[in-house]
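Hey, I was hoping to borrow your eyes for a little while. No rush at all, and the record is pasted right below:
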Amino acid sequence: MRRISVLISLLGLLISAFGCSSVSKLEQAEYSPKRFGAETPSAPSLPTGEKEDSMINFLRNENGKEGGGEKAAETKRLIIYTATFSIGVYEIDSAVDRAKKSAEEVGGYVQEEGDNYVVLRVPAKSFWETVEKIRAIGRVIEKRVKAQDVTEEYLDLELRLKAKKEYLAALKELLSKAQNTEEILEVQRQIGAVIEEIESLEGRLRYLASKVAYSTILARFQLEYTRGERKLHLPFEWLYTLGIENLLKKF
């Protein structure tokens, strides 16, 4: 039993040392400005029908398509785009429908919908196009756009995942050499713990890949007035959002 415990501890130390060495190299190479360049290109979109589990490989493939394989992939950063809008409109249901349509037109979808709001997921390459369409729905009361660079976190998670998988392989090899029931149970316990860690890392990687591939837009609408309250009739509905009605009342 003691022999197995010592071997497990040594394996853990070796894997940890490997991980630290890899991160050090990563900081010197993968994270350098020369590797990624100054630009922050839009993230690729996920093809319709592609499973979420394949997002990571898809992102890598998309990176490799632009400008020559690994060299192009080295300049690609992983960015999560999000936008939040508060928009004044005269008809909430119509505004929600327009927002949903703007996402569907670029291959996006509705993640959540309420009485006066909608959460959209759109391909990252169509993020700014969709933002402009949402802005045009009514009077923008508040707008907040955020771009979060998760490149370093993603690469770090990949290194940790690789190290954990190598540790798991070593534990399985050690299991085949266990000499009694007590040793077998101890190694199996370690294997179970490592598998949980691997699943957690893979889940986080899938989450980040999903957020990079599809940007999130929250549009919340509030009623500014109703049709019955209008004293002045303009030829186009969108003119009311410009405040022309109040301006003309002064004359």
Q: What stands out?
A: The chain has two domains: 2-39+150-213, 79-145+215-248. DSSP finds nine helices and five strands in the chain.
